[in-house]
Amino acid sequence: MVRAEFDFWVGIVMDKFYDGLQNKQFIGSKCSKCQRVFLPPRNRCGDCFAKAEEFVELPENGVLKNFTVSNYNVTERRARKAKEPIMVGLIQIDGADTGIIAPIINISPDSLKEGMKVKVVWAKNVKGHPNDIAGFEPVGGG
Amino acid sequence: MAHKVQPAIISCGFCEHASKRSDVNMAELVNEAVEDCITKANIDWKDIDAVVNGNMPAFEGANMPELWMGDHMASKNKPLLRVTTGGTTGGSVTIAGYYSVASGLYDMVLCIGFEQQSCGDTTVGLASVALGEFSIFSDLGYTIERMRSNMGSGAAIGVASYQAMNYMRRSRATEEDLARVVVQNRRNAAKNWWTHLKMPTITIEDVLDTPYISFPLRFGMVCPASDGACAMLITTEEKAKQIADIPVYINGVASYSNESAIIGIDCAGAGQTDPCEQLGAMKSAEVAYGQAGISFPNKEIDYAEVYSPFPNQELMWVERIGLFEENQAPEAYRNGVTALNGELPVNCSGGVNSTNAIGASAMERPAEAALQIMGKAGNQVPKTVHTALGHGWGGSINLITHVVMSDEPQRKWR
Question: Any bridge partners for residue B108, and if so which?
Fold first, then answer.
């Protein structure tokens, strides 16, 4: 068997994003020309091919743009039936023009609706890792 | 073959190469070279009509990277083509850019070659390329262990050592001759801003003092694994004259392969017994020179960039592509003919021996050759360069790309 290990350097720009998570903040970047805001940040705007190196702090609230519900846990080797349905959504944070994908929690799958307002729930121990976002929950109990 | 539209190189860009560029992700790495190229050309990115790009598949463990780094390649709303042919990827990307312009389809094409080797496992990447061959090999009853032992040692050096032995037997080149090539390359690299292994004070003794990896190749003779990217703008003759001070016209391109030695078709055995014979290199050189109207390459070529991760290959290529008589290259290197101020400077950029970001390497050869004609190279040769060539090597030591360029357009009588 051949085993291979691969790394991926996130680079200085995405480092800012993870530093932000550690401080329970969302850090995006703004295009210097068209003022679009990227979250997660990127250093270049594709529309303008202009630099997007101005970092902006974004709120914890956003809008659920899209979602899916799964009854299976996908583990490394096989899929197993989950005890409770798993919900994942595409969330556009207020003030950002791009979306991030994260789990949706504290809501029943039946009441998920596109366009509903959601708010981030941080993990107990934040350490600058994607898992720092425990999930998003509906604002005002859904 | 005469092209309908005369393609010309107007600008070449690089990012800084190193063994680990962890300060940028792959997209940002590529963007550095693209921005360098566009800024130096002094054009608007919207003037670019199409983008051709390539890297080695699976080396970073990232599939189809062009699909998620489009923003960073200035390719929004533009046709984007990916070309990948192993070690010659950069050369093939350049040729694809040439075809795009020569056909009259696009006026300005951006060519990009890149590799961020520190992300992945190069040997596994190579294995994935050879996987198709592995499976047939095991059908024949060979184990992978057996195949690996046949290759001497892992990756490219396993096959290159056979090539080195054959070359040394033919030409009576010594280990000292190999070390001399390394010294010339690494000292040249020290004067070029974007290169990886900069060794301004290295000596032949230093190289011969390092242990063997696979006889006769020593640790000090082997190319590094680099992170880096290269970009190049190819446009039409008319536009090039408006934009660049000295447009570099691409007058001949060719890509040929002969059956590989050592591995053979589907690992069924060697298609030939001499890996330093290189009929593919001779053929591609002949065809490219023919297109460019060059009859005496040893007299007419002023500067050459050849793809030589291992020093024996540099000696071998310059002979096979007609720059020196057979077995005369070691003598020429001893006499300084190929040095910066020599009659026929070779690899003044430092060559692949000093910097090897694989997907970019074969594009950096024509790019550096073009910069020498423009007079803008990092390690510029003192004499005026009119005609230069960029050569690429890849596959199982058998695939060759050849790009011949000049400050004059292709001769009209052809």
Answer: B235
* Residue A2 resides in a domain: no
Q: Do A44 and B31 make contact, defined as CB atoms within 8 angstroms?
A: yes
Residue B2 is assigned to a structural domain of this protein: no
Let me know: does B214 contact B229? Beta carbons within 8 Å. no
What is the CATH classification number for the domain harbouring B68?
Answer: 3.40.47.10
**Residue A6 is assigned to a structural domain of this protein:** no
B246-261 pLDDT tens trace: 999 999 999 998 776 5
Give the distance from residue B44's alpha carbon to the nearest chain A alpha carbon, in angstroms.
10
Instruction: Centre a 10 Å sphere on the Cβ of residue B125 and count the other Cβ atoms it contains.
Output: 22
Please report the ipTM that was assigned to this predicted complex. Answer: 0.88
Q: Average pLDDT of B240-249?
A: 96
pLDDT tens per residue across span B175-208: 999 999 999 999 999 999 999 999 999 999 999 9
Residue B27 forms part of a structural domain:
yes
Question: Mutation test of the interface with chain A: which of B19, B20, B23, B25, choosing the one with the most A Cβ atoms within 10 A?
Answer: B25
Long-range contacts, A36-41 (Cβ 8 Å, 24+): A36/A97, A37/A95, A37/A96, A37/A97, A37/A98, A38/A96, A38/A97, A38/A98, A39/A93, A39/A96, A39/A98, A39/A99, A39/A100, A40/A14, A40/A98, A40/A100, A41/A13, A41/A14, A41/A16, A41/A17
B107/A contact by beta carbon, under 8 A: no
What is the span of the domain harbouring residue A46? 11-141
User: Looking at the 3D structure of chain B, how many domains does it have?
Assistant: 1
State the alpha helices, DSSP H only, in B297-338. Answer: 297-300, 311-320, 329-334
- The residue segments making up the domain with residue B262 are 7-120+223-406
**Residue A59, in any domain of the structure:** yes
Q: What is the pLDDT of residue B60?
A: 81
Identify the closest residue of chain B to A7 by CA–CA distance. Answer: B119
Instruction: Note whether residue B262 is domain-resident.
Output: yes
Nearest to B70 among A2, A8, A46 (CB): A46
Q: Summarize the confidence of residues B229-243 as an average pLDDT.
A: 97
Q: Note whether residue A39 is domain-resident.
A: yes
Selection from B89, B378, B86 nearest residue B229 by Cα: B89
Mean predicted confidence (pLDDT) in B266-294 = 82
